[in-house]
Amino acid sequence: MVAALELYFDPPAERRIRKLWDALEDVGVPTLRDLTHRLHRPHLSLTGAERLDPAAIAEALKDLTVAPALAIRLDYIGQFLGRVLWLGPVPSADLLAHHSQVHRRLSRAGIAGFEYYEPARWVPHTTLSMRVPLAKMNDAIRLCLDVLPISATVSAAAVADYARDEWTPL
């Protein structure tokens, strides 16, 4: 993914995830902490695309609270193909409804993202590592289990495009 509409967590939850990133790095698992320009924040992406126009997204979502104070509970560990390791939030009705509402607004505005972020296909997740070395997978899972669950509250949102060094708060 190159650009995303990201939801950020309250400071205590963000600190806990950053400490997990540090612990993973200490055992040789590369994390988002050091990916690209070291600007990543722990987050939950609502959509992603090769490119997103922050002004168009802001306009499409102008009368919607993009970062409502949703309670999030990161409760499990997941993995996507390519050894992408992530923490999964319990998919609450409020989280799923918010995601659907955001996508309805974006769709009406003609803003498309990757299809795997569409409602009914989306796997909500907070990425930890984009490629866990196979020899380190057990260590990575153990470290994740040591910190779960993590309770968080959504506190902010932004359109982030790290490849182009653009970050636009919403």
What does this structure look like?
29% of the residues lie in helices and 29% in strands. The protein has helices at 11-26, 54-60, 93-108, 137-147; strands at residues 3-9, 43-49, 71-80, 84-89, 126-129, 150-161, 166-169. Strands 1, 2, 3, 4, 5, 6 and 7 form a 7-stranded antiparallel β-sheet that branches. β3 (71-80) and β4 form a beta hairpin. The protein starts with a strand and ends with a strand.
- According to DSSP, the number of beta strands is 7
Give the number of helices.
4
Find the CATH superfamily. Cyclic phosphodiesterase
The N- to C-terminal Cα distance equals: 20 Å
What form results from the Cα inertia axes?
globular
What top-tier CATH class fits best? Alpha Beta
Taken as a percent bin, the fraction of beta residues is 25-35%
Q: Structural class, judged by helices and strands?
A: alpha+beta
CATH topology: Cyclic Phosphodiesterase, Chain: A
Described by strand count, sense and barrel closure, the largest sheet is:
7 strands, antiparallel
**Secondary-structure element string:** EHEHEEHEHEE
Rg from Cα: 15 Å
- What portion of residues is helical? 25-40%
Q: Quickly give the CATH architecture.
A: Alpha-Beta Complex
Low-confidence stretches: none
How many discrete structural domains? 1
